[in-house]
């Protein structure tokens, strides 16, 4: 028997045994081929395949690491506080096809209307970078991203993001109130076309459609109209008052009540967006005249004692006693020598008191002379009754 025949006979007799041996050998070989970054063999139950992206570049990593942080430590990826890891480091790696993104922070200069904001950021996308750097941006703004190759001229290192601001304007449509729009178009007409706003046939556009857009420009689309209306209105009555020295001071007694009149007024009313913006009287017809109300007003004061004698001695009419009593009572409490902190003195508080002293050298003890002096002063109001009415309005005379 030759050698070839002997080998063939051996494999035929032991085919099953050799098959088992081959399976065990293949398993051992494959198990040894899966190694983690720290050189340990990966078992089939605790290993996962992770796609690790660093600034967008993918590396497939087999690992037995339990968390993202452990994976980064085993793969010797150094991180700074400014770098961004997604998902977070404490996230468990619990399945295959697990993805980890690492964004390394880099310097970025943000150019906004000539101002430069510098940031060291891991974020991607111009809008997100600007927002994370604290720059207020709007959906209509656009951006240009360039490499920072102009350090000498612009002092810029790394990426450069230029913000192209949309122009903010307001549109007031038929009186509905201003609405802010932001746009990159150049004129009012272009903006209306962009926003699909078509003014009605009889509407007015202000400013004109060819007006260039400028920041915070106010645009009005309005509808004007005119209408004529007639209304019935009241005519107020007048009041005639007669002093009544027999009635207590200030008491009003109506002797004949007044009655308002009636008039019809025709107006031409101008409207804008359904709201009145002006009116002009076209005609006014008095239907009934108002009736004047007559009344009396008491002037009698309940005055007794020294102040009564002082007023009589000063030649003050009894019909004015109430007015005098009210004013002097409020100014000094009827104390002849009264002085205020501002230097006003006497019954009626003359300012300065030197004016009173020139008319009445002994004014502190001469109330009659003072009352004559203050009667002359009341003349600027037409007398004591006029002075009383002025005091009620102003709180002084």
List the helices and strands and how they pair.
Blueprint: H1 3-13, H2 15-33, E1 48-54, E2 57-63, H3 68-74, E3 84-86, E4 98-103, E5 106-112, E6 115-121, H4 126-132, E7 142-148, H5 151-154, E8 158-164, E9 167-173, E10 178-183, H6 188-194, E11 204-206, E12 217-222, E13 224-235, E14 239-248, E15 252-256, E16 261-272, E17 275-288, E18 293-300, H7 306-313, H8 321-331, H9 353-359, H10 367-377, H11 384-394
Helix pairs in contact: 8-11
Detail the poorly predicted runs.
1-8, 10-43
By DSSP, the count of extended strands is 18
Instruction: From the alpha carbons, calculate the radius of gyration and give it in angstroms.
Output: 50 Å
Q: Strand share of the residues? A: 25-35%
Can you write the helix and strand succession as a string?
Answer: HHEEHEEEEHEHEEEHEEEEEEEEHHHHH
Number of self-contained structural domains: 6
Task: Quote the average pLDDT.
Answer: 86
Could you describe the largest sheet, including whether it forms a barrel? 4 strands, mixed
**Strand adjacency order, main sheet:** 2-1-4-3
The CA-CA distance between the termini, in Å, is 152 Å
Helix share, percent: 25-40%
Number of helices: 11
């Amino acid at each position: 028997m030759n050698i070839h025949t002997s080998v063939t006979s051996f494999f035929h007799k032991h085919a099953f045994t050799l098959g088992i041996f081959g399976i065990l050998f293949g398993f051992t070989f494959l198990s040894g081929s899966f190694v983690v970054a720290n050189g340990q063999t990966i078992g089939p139950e605790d290993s996962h395949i992770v796609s690790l992206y660093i600034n967008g570049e993918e590396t497939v990593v087999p690992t037995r690491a339990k968390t993202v942080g452990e994976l980064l430590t085993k793969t010797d990826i150094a991180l700074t506080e400014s770098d961004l890891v997604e998902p977070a480091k404490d996230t468990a790696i619990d399945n295959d096809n697990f993805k980890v993104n690492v964004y390394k922070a880099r310097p970025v200069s943000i150019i906004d209307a000539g101002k430069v904001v510098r940031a060291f950021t891991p974020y991607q996308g111009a809008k997100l970078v600007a927002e994370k750097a604290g720059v207020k941006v709007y959906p209509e703004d656009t951006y240009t991203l360039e490499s920072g190759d102009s350090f000498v001229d612009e002092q810029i290192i790394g990426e450069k993001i230029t913000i192209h601001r949309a122009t903010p304007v307001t549109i007031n449509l038929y009186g509905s109130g201003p609405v802010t729009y932001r746009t990159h178009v150049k004129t009012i007409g272009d903006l209306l076309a962009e926003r699909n706003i078509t003014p009605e046939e009889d509407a007015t556009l202000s400013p004109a459609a060819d007006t260039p857009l400028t920041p915070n420009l106010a645009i009005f689309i309005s509808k004007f109209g005119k209408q004529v209306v007639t209304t019935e209105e009241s005519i107020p009555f007048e009041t005639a008052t007669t002093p009544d020295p027999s009635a207590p001071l200030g008491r009003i007694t109506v002797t004949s009540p007044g009655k308002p009149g009636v008039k019809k007024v025709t107006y031409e009313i101008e409207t804008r967006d359904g709201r009145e913006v002006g009116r002009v009287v076209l005609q006014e017809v008095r239907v009934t005249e108002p009736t004047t109300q007559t009344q009396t007003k008491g002037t009698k004061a309940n005055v007794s004692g020294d102040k009564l004698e002082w007023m009589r001695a000063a030649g003050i009419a009894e019909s004015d006693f109430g007015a005098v009593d009210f004013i002097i009572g409020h100014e000094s409490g009827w104390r002849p020598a009264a002085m205020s902190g501002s230097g006003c003195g006497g019954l009626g508080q003359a300012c300065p008191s030197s004016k009173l002293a020139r008319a009445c050298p002994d004014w502190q003890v001469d109330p009659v002379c003072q009352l004559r002096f203050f009667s002359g002063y009341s003349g600027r109001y037409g007398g004591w009754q006029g002075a009383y009415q002025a005091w009620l309005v102003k709180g002084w005379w």
